[in-house]
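Notes from the pairing session

We agreed to fold both candidates in a single pass and log them together. This is the raw record for the first candidate, unedited. Please don't reformat it; downstream parsing expects exactly this layout.

Candidate A
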Amino acid sequence: MEGIAKYRLEVNISPDKLEAGILLRVDEEDLDTLLLSEGDIYKELEKKKIKVGILDNVVLDLCALPRKYANSQVTIARGVAPVQGVDGSVEYPYLDSVVEGNGPKELEDGRVDYYNVTSIPNVAKGQLLARKIPAGQGTAGTTVTGETIAPKAGKDVVIKPGKNVVQNQERTMIYAAIDGQVSFTDNDKMNVFPVFEVNGDVDFGVGNIDFVGTVVIRGNVLNGFRVKASGDIRVLGSVEGAELHAEGSIEIKSGIVAQDKGHIIAGQNIRTSFIQNANVTAGNQVIVSQSIMFSTVRAGKEIICKGAKGIIIGGVLQAGEKIAARVFGNTSATPTILEVGVKPELRQELVQIQKELQVVYENLRKTDQGLSVMNQILQVSGELPPDKRMLQIKLTNTRLVLEKECKSLEARKKDVETELKGEGPAAIEAYHVMYPGIKMTFGKLVHFIKHEYARTRFVVLDGEISTATLI
């Protein structure tokens, strides 16, 4: 119609179909004579099959104030985004009945009882230990064109039964099969172990301990003694140059003074107040409240020393994910080595594989020499004597076995080297200060600390070790 402004409506749908926009294309000189009706807009939306989440207030606004929206896209419809399902989880009802000690208690005569600091969290046969909460399926969404968007289900979780526990038929609950103490071992398996208690020191009066369960020592573990447990080990005193090996976790209340003797090994976590001149290895975490001094400490995930003192000086510390302390080193620039980014056992395994391969290569060389001699005899005489024939068969079989072993070791070596190259995110965190003298290694990247850093986090970004200030 003559005198009526020309315009064009363009409707665009986002790639995920959760939003639609409308664009009013009109020349500036036509805006004053523009007549735009709600019906025109709804008709355009209908052409694009948009029927969900239409913003009626925007439609009214567009008709009333076209100048405001001219030649500029505005959202005209919004769909409903799907809601991802909640990840599955595990509840541990037995923890509700566990009461930990609140520290040393003062006796009537004024002395302090340091031996009964911890109450042992025992469970009873038949007690519910773990309950699986299934992952949520989420809520479906709807596109602006009315299509259903399937939600993403949450990640499922698996509860892993270990020793002396039973599951229900649906595998959603774990119950204790005996009276004892809960302990988590390799791959987070849940176990119940009987408890063996020593009401004093592990000394010549007690001897070495090897127990299929959890061991609680209410005194100290002295030089040269061994304590082995398939569950946890709890020491309410200190540990000297002894050997402790727990498939679960180890807790030492008063610290470790090893004088470069013995070895503390836990499949899960090691928790103590201080570590001095010791060799400590944990599959998961090493958590220290005061200090780590001149020790070799390895952890599959983290080494944490960030208490009120929280200082690490000297030694070699290796962790798969993080090493954190309040203070690293001292003003004397004592050499301290920090390695993160790869599980320490991978480095050790690679060294062991390389040693084993050298032995296999040497045995293969000797076997090939023997077979070569047999072939020379055969070429000269046309046949082998019975004893040489038996030796040839034996060498041939030996070579087949060595070849198979060699292929297996080389394949594992390749896998380990790949893991060493592709280390996951790792960090070293100094919550107060890091002094010079520190050598830090992230996988294959090495950095020497030559000046003080205050409240600093060290990470790898774009193939280089970089720093960020901790708040």
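Candidate B (folded immediately after A)
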Amino acid sequence: MCNLHDSCVLKIAVASDLHAYQHIDGKPLESYLNVLGTTDSASNDPLQHLSNLITHEQLKADLFLSPGDLGNKASVEGIRYAWKSLHEIGDKLQAHLVTAASGNHDLDSRFQNYKYDPTEILQRLIPPYPLPNQVNNDQYWARKFALIQTEHYRLIVLNSAAYHGGQEDEINHGRISNLTIERIAEELSKSDIAPVNIILCHHHPQQFPEIFEDDDTYDIMKNGQQLLNLIGNGEHGNWIVIHGHKHHARVAYSQGYNSAPLVIAAGSFSAVIHPKLQTQARNQFYLLELPLDHQNGFVGTIRAWDWSPAGWSPAMPSGSGLPAVCKFGCRDAAQNLAGKINKILGNDQVANWSSILQEIPELDFLLPSDFKALVHALNNKKFNINVEFDNGIPKEIGRRQTI
């Protein structure tokens, strides 16, 4: 039995790619989480700032998930520090479960610290990793995944780095084997469909072309699309996949069926952002709010915060990764929605956006990318409708005069 903070909403906090490590003076900084303290002062610490944010905003979460890379380059000290810190933050959020999926930096695949087993760093962690129950952990290590079932959600914690330390080239990408997919299918067929179904993993199961460059396709989760096809075929409920790895946030529906899962690429919580990404990504923390029985079906809200040495603040409308508030759930085509709006506007020249939402409430749950497509559809010659914004929030629509 899972007791939620809000009986109608499942809340999930997400912090990905912490990359904690023991920094050496004179070397380039790779993460803002230094187990010996930050380079400037304790006040410039993303974890301390997150604790302050939780207190100030009175944030609560039912689950606290990390999509991997707790440490940097298999740093034993960093992984221990990050795992302990996640549980401390989880306690502050009053989360009933704190868990993580193994990232490529969490496996000692180059055998720097342990001669035989690249997973020993993780299997020695206290509290037990990745789940509190040892039976679940044995399943995670032996079968490459563990499934947690509650009244409100099903959670699959997937080890997409399971083969790191095996064949030499496996360290360059993630993988889910055919056998693991078959076993997940068996488990899903035996378990009950929950209102919310989640896969937590490290590597991306699909490419996002606007983020990943052509030469980055090598590090995708091999067989990832087969996994998405399995959970998106409509037989196993509504799914969200949460992954990390790329340090660039993005949210989109996967390709395939109209019940295809939502895929959330979480930005890095505290790694120093690569120069190529610094105009497109910031360090981010997330809180998902998922109504369990909404009139518009499977919908939700993702809240995002950016970090700077001054602390955590609501994410910027652009250039951060995810904006401060982003919603999902409306899958209607942009042209169809534009036609509905055009009909509501009729011969009127101007209307408040709030009045449009009253008529078409599902509009409030468009992904940012889908909302851009809607604005473009409204602007074309067929409708001649402009959308006016205030600080990135739609306020009014108006029909352009034609000559």
